[in-house]
Amino acid sequence: MSSLTLKGVSLRVGDKTLLGPLDAKIQPGEILSIAGRSGTGKSSLLAYLCGVLPPAFTASGQVLIDDQDITAWPPERRGLGILFQDDLLFPHLSVEGNLAFGLRRSGVPAGKRSEAIAAALASFGLGGFGPRDPATLSGGQRARVALLRTLLSEPKALLLDEPFAHLDDDTRMSIRTVVFDEVKRRQLPTLLVTHDAEDVAAAQGPVIRLEGLGAIP
Amino acid sequence: MRSLLRHWRTTAFLACAALCQTAGAAQGNVDWAAVEKAARGQTVYFDAWGGDAAINRYIAWAGDVVQRRYGVKLVLVKVTDIAEAVTRVQAEKAAGRTTGGSVDLMWINGENFASLKAAGLLYGPWVDSLPHARLLDASDPTQRTDFTLPTAGLEMPWGGARFTLFYDGAAIKTSPPRDPQALLAWIRAHPARFTYPQPPDFIGTSFLKQMLLLLAADAARLQQPVSSDFDVVTQPLWTWLDAAHPHLWRSGRAFPRSSPEQRRLLGDGEVDWLLAFNPSEAARAIRARELPDSIRGVHFAQGALGNSHFLAIPFNSSASAAARVVANFLLSPAAQARKSDIAHWGDPTVLAMAALTPAERALFGTGGRDAASPAPGPLLLEPHPSWTPALERAWSLRYGAR
Amino acid sequence: MKGLPIALLLFVGVGPVVAGFMGTVLGGLSASAWHELLLEPGLPIAALLAIGTGVVSTLIALTLAHVAVAVAFSRLRHTTLRLAALPTLATPHVAIAIGLVLLLSPSGLVLRALSPWATGFEQPPDWATVQDSLGLALTLGLIVKEVPFLILVLLGALSQVPASRLVTQGRVLGYGVFKTWFVAVAPLLQRQARFATAAVLVFGLTNVEMSLALGPTTPPTLSLLVWSWFTDANLATQSKAYAGALLLLLISVAVVGLVAGMATSVVRQRWQAWATNGDRVPSLNLDGMAARNASRVALGLGGAALGALLIRSVGGTWRFPSVWPAQLSIAAWTQGISDMQRAVTASVTVGLAATVIAIGIVLAVAEALHDSPLARRRLAVLLFIPLVIPQMAFLFGMQTMLLRLHLDGTWCGVLWSHLLFVLPYAWVVLAEARAQLSPGYRIVSRTLGAGPVTTWVRILLPQLLRSILIAAGLCFAVSMALYLPTQFAGGGRIVTVTTEAAVAMSSGDLRSAASYGVMQALLPLAVFAVTAGVSRRLFTHRQGMPT
User: Fold this and answer.
1) Measuring CA to CA, which of B64, B77, C323, C494 is 20 to 30 A from C295?
2) CATH number of this structure's domain B164-306+376-399, picked from the four choices 3.30.230.10, 3.40.190.10, 2.60.120.1680, 3.10.25.10
3) Contact check, Cβ <8 Å, C451/A78
């Protein structure tokens, strides 16, 4: 059980401040929503947290998991999971291949990885989908595979970048429920950026609203 | 058995080398065995006109032999005009590359030799020190002067040439024209069946010189450099061409690019004539199924323009020893005999038959003439090299831009 | 770290062009050279010939390519069109030109097939069907060679344009398919293809190998004149050649500018009026249009030229009007076998090395610049310079540079000269493909715990593989076709199938020229076949892969 802390995080393009400074501490199982229109730097904030901010931006502030400052760490060591509005399943790998890419080597012995993946799929109602081509899946199925891939990498915190925006109305509701349930079940501190009021309401956590430049708590 | 044979070959070769060495020492004071020793392992880049498959094959054969016999690697660098290689040597001189040049041996004569000689870009003199140089035909004036310039031992005669006209005996059944006026009459009577390669192609320019030698009021004037009387001297040539051009292939508005291209036109039946420097050209091409066997050769009655073609070594050659070894081999009776054989190339030899042993003479075959080659006739010497660019420029001014 | 691949790309792909261009400028900045140049007999005609053949062939080829793409789109036949374009695209200019001579000359296959039964000719007529003084045969040859290239460029651009939706939109408004196409889609495609069009135009203005076979000789085109001066033994002629190369450059820049300007004004006045006049022309039907048949003829001629090469390469004595050679002879193949082996080895090794190196460098730079579109655009402009200025304008100077570096006449020198022309094609295919991969893949992969190298090898590279294969086929074909760069950098010592074909062509030995021409076509086609085969077998069950 970890927490995710942002200390004085701000983003700039050139000498123009785009966002921040932001201070927040997200407790285990808590979902902090950052709401705002597009162009307010929400996605760039997530990129900064992951450690993949494009060179056009400059940023300052610290990111901590528990008391560990991870600001300077490479993305692969930070232990953050991220979901985008595009599911970004790797098109050249099967469903199982995608999940195996996410599944950490520790925890599951080499011979049991396939079984573990099959079990995880079944638990998400996707039993037998392992050999499938991701391109043949429905939007909801793909979203679930993407979530599962992230969870199998055992993140310490979860970042959600408008993860339900591309789904149709019925699917959106069910996927949102699946994701938020998993957040609670695994007690993941979660940062959700969205422009959808329903998402914010469903998250039932604290909210930060961005209005163009600067943050209004 | 095989090793014994090889041993015998080596012995014979050494004996021959020793003999040649004495001969060489007398002429040029060069230790030929040392030259061969230095040559071993060297690569000779041989820049030569590469437009004839038969010639390329002959050079490839020579390459195999010198590799086997002297450990010299011979690489043919095909050029469309040897002037390209002359240019490269000049560029290397300009870039300060006085050793390690990219050309080791070049096939050359005439104005290209003249410009390299004038600029001091040739290695040598080296020709007289070759063991086989004593076999050269001293009575042939084209071997000692190249377009009136003394060769001065800077280039080695490789082959002889006589300007020859070939015609299709199936189309011209009576005796063929053998002087300019008869040729002009034939051209007028047979529109679009005669042409010549476009100057500055070597054969094209040679055709201009051949006609000028026949037409000029004083042919001896051409042995001196060009000067202000160029227009007067050459006027008869332009008069002749002006009369002929409207009746040529493509009405004289287009010309074949080269003699081999004209050979293709003759073979396909587009024209009835082919101009070439090699009297055996047609005989070889008939054998190679490039021309029908109805082709016959003829020289102008007054004489055929004749010259020799040569091999020269640039000043910055990185393999001058090996280049000399290759040249000496190309001068050997065996190599010269193969060269003169129409089954291979059919290029006349530069060796004096009298200087050869009977066995060596026998290599050259019976001496019987094939039906397609003309009987040898009088020789007309090449004009001074300065006439070549002058004629080419004047031609291009008159006919090159229609 | 990021700067290293970019620096390498600039050094390899742009450096020699700059150095070579400086060398040419220095060599051509002499008043006496320009004086000599301007006194050259036939210079204005030679320049007009170059401009005329270049501009006319480009305009016609572009029209035909657009029509062919429009028809293929309307009938969902992209793949057929792509396949039809491939043989001629893969075949270098020299081979196409030789093949056309064999087809079209008065003793060529076309007239043989018609004689004497239809024409009454027992002897070939004295017609200037090739090397005519107006350059018509040369124009035709350029069209035949460039139509397939432009077709493939336009088909490539099609994937960047929402063509189906645009056409549907137009048809809903009551417009015919083809008016919709030429109002809504073609301009977008042309915008993507403008660099390629400029390259085609400049090549048409300045090429040597096509004019050598098909162009007139009294006088030849300007580029051929300059080339002949450069190979002249006389030093004064050399500086005239430098000045001539600069003149070629000036003419190219002026013509490209003029054509672009005129096209813009035509678009402003005529096209816009036509596009907005409200006339639906639902009946405009390209199926029966002359332009469509012409594009078929252009593609067909390319194929027929290849057939003619093959027949000639095995033909012996062959008098007009026999349609078949009197004797067949494989002499051209067997007797020159060692030369052929040497040339094929050089072509293949240089081609493969150039392909691998170009793809490697471009992948590294594309990775470094995947999120900097502006930097990519600027780099693309630099990389395209060798394609849109006359080759001779920098090859003269580049040869001097190689001479100083002791790289002239070496395999490495030739490889470098090929990279100049291969890199832009690798860039066009791969930089875009990389930029189009969602940045999210990298982020997801990294957050799932994969390092940067693992991410590139396991996630990004597989998604680029198909583009890499396309680039490989294209790069190899480009390298295979390069004549002047090989000739300049190789100095005759490095002999490729293309230089051999040109030597045989320029000396009129059509039988050898044909055998080398056949080989020139076969090698890139073989590489295309291999890359296409591999590409088809890759990820057969993965529909979501970028294509």
Assistant:
1) C323
2) 3.40.190.10
3) no
